[in-house]
Design goal:
Layout (H helix, E strand, L loop, with lengths): L4 H8 L3 H8 L8 H14 L5 H8 L4 E6 L6 H16 L3 E6 L8 H4 L5 E4 L5 H10 L2 E4 L2 H21 L5 E6 L5 H18 L7 E3 L6 H5 L7 E5 L2 H13 L8 E4 L5 H5 L6 E4 L2 H11 L9 H7 L1 E4 L9
Parallel strand pairs: 1-2, 1-3, 3-4, 5-6, 5-7, 7-8
Antiparallel strand pairs: 9-10
Length: 321
Amino acid sequence: MMTSSADVAARAGVSRSTVSQILNGHGHRFKPDMVDRVQAVAQELGYRPSLAGRALVRGKSDIVITLLPNISFGPRLRELIDRVTDELAETGTTNLIRFSAGGELIDDAVLALRPVGLWSVAPLSPAQHEQLDRLGARVVDQPRELQIAIDESIGALQARHLIERGYPAIVVAMPEDQREQPFALARQQGALAEAAAAGIPTLPTVRLGLARDSSGELARLLPPRDVGVVAYNDDAALAVAAAARHAGRAVPDEIGVIGVDNTVVAGVSEPSITTVDIDVRFSAHEIVRALNGDGPLPTNALETVRSSVSVIPGGSTARDR
């Protein structure tokens, strides 16, 4: 049976009101020995105050909801969430992670928590914005146009590096997984546009299944000519490098490949994978600043992100030009 505040009150010899006030941050109103006794009993019985009930009383909680889209949970996204969580904690706010199925309405379980703010990694729909506006929650989400522009910039940076390394043609390698398509298509567009601007031919996009033991199948998809491969992320880049080895193609002399995310495994593979790193420190700080009501995200967000993105050279593109 679940422990209630009445159980704590009975064991500690105080009223339910006293238990509620002490466990909801108002212990300064009571004698230290009483606070210690109530907290000790609550811990002994495993009692935790209801977040939803506390929010109902206050009208607002000390919770921020982070909505995550149904995409791969890469290291840069994990780092960004960690930094946002840490900065929020410094202001006394709890970050609660919630996975989102896309444009569906935010469910009642989330709204019942009466979050003080909500940060969505993917753009919110107008209906979702309306829900949160009625609740009075601060909302931080990235406009779809901005996300597309950022991913196009990443794809262009990848293609530019390959062109500078002397690869005579460019091909994009992107996952078949539909969850990644909104980001992958923008990176593809950025890479193709950069190649076109440089007068470098592009080849049909290679789509990766990334299944176990798929190197042989992927090897048959690789172009027969020397080419630079713009891979969607480091996982895709590692798959391309493995397929090249399976086909007896030399990396980086015949096939160069660049990924995104600067993962540990990309750095310790042989050859190491050239990758794109994204410094998320500024983004995390600006997200928390907006959630705390200190102003919206900067209007020059695209230029800020561009300035925090860089190529980390690896063996997979270290050919003689």
